[in-house]
Specification:
The chain is α/β, with parallel strands linked by helices. It has a 7-stranded mixed beta sheet with strand order 3-2-1-4-5-7-6, with helices on one face.
């Protein structure tokens, strides 16, 4: 699955953005041989299972220039790196508690010369700062994730949608999300035609400012 898959769904990319997306494959192939952060099966379908999946968030939310996004449990850099390529005027902070994963993230960021990404080897609870949105790919059940990220949302919303969490999840989320009255679920199969997205979703949960950074 090549970078053209991305270009088919995002048709206004600049030449530089196209080059960045194209370069991802070689960078991840190379680094995954040294530090395994993407499964052997998934690395062959990098653009479908990781890059396009990450960009599903962009189908739900357009990030304004100057806004800041936190990617929690980024692993090998997803969804943060694809989103950072798509939104070059937005600042992305990528965190993971596993050092070898952040090493790969930093090497990919350096390889692409992305100026809008900072990578941190830390637990999110120990990270200082507040953000417009928090993004992630199913690193924990939502109640746990909300607890981890408490105090990380900015007070002022600059987007039409209130500041909060944009979470990539799959399967039946009825029980997990039953405690949240204001949650919204977006089916990615409505945006992407590949079978992979049949059960994939973006969960949006607005979060109140708590004043604790």
């Amino acid at each position: 699955m090549q970078a053209e898959l991305i270009f088919n769904y995002f048709t206004t990319l600049t030449d530089q953005q196209k080059a960045h997306f194209t370069d991802l494959e070689a960078l991840y192939q190379d680094w995954n041989k040294k530090i395994n952060v993407v499964s052997r099966k998934d690395i062959d379908e990098l653009y479908l299972r990781h890059v396009l999946h990450s960009l599903g968030i962009a189908k739900i939310q357009d990030f304004h220039s100057g806004s800041s996004i936190l990617d929690v449990g980024t692993g090998g850099g997803f969804p943060g790196i694809p989103l950072a390529i798509l939104f070059p005027e937005v600042q992305f902070t990528l965190v993971d508690a596993i050092g070898k994963k952040i090493k790969v993230v930093q090497e990919v960021v350096d390889g692409l010369q992305l100026k809008n990404v900072k990578a941190h080897h830390t637990r999110v609870e120990e990270l200082h700062g507040q953000f417009d949105f928090i993004v992630s790919r199913a690193v924990a059940a939502m109640p746990t994730f909300v607890r981890w990220t408490k105090g990380k949302i900015k007070k002022e919303s600059t987007h039409e949608r209130k500041n909060g969490i944009l979470y990539l999840k799959g399967g039946d989320l009825t029980e997990e999300l039953s405690g949240y009255k204001n949650v919204e679920i977006f089916e990615l199969k409505n945006y992407f035609s590949e079978d992979f997205f049949e059960t994939k979703k973006v969960v949006y949960l607005p979060q109140k400012y708590t004043g604790k950074a």
